[in-house]
Amino acid sequence: MGMFEEVYAAVRRIPRGRVATYGQIARMIGRPRAARVVGYALSAAPADVPCHRVVSRQGGLSEAFSPCGRETHRLLLEMEGVAFRPDGTVDLETCLWR
Prior knowledge:
The protein has five helices and two strands. It has about 100 residues and is mainly alpha-helical.
């Protein structure tokens, strides 16, 4: 299994209403310094990979999220009940997948 496929398998395990960070996914697949590569993998992910459940280490959303950047990213997470802080970042204390 290639690295991108490992990323996709890990992201598919994130339950609805929870998020993981790019670094967390990198550690899960045994590549702790590959958080940036996780982002590259997700930008090319098949439709069945819930990419919207992956956020930055501070809970930030992706401007590169298609089709409308952060707005789409936030909407998809809100539809699953993910909580946000007043600054617009995901509340990792309550929503981080462990």
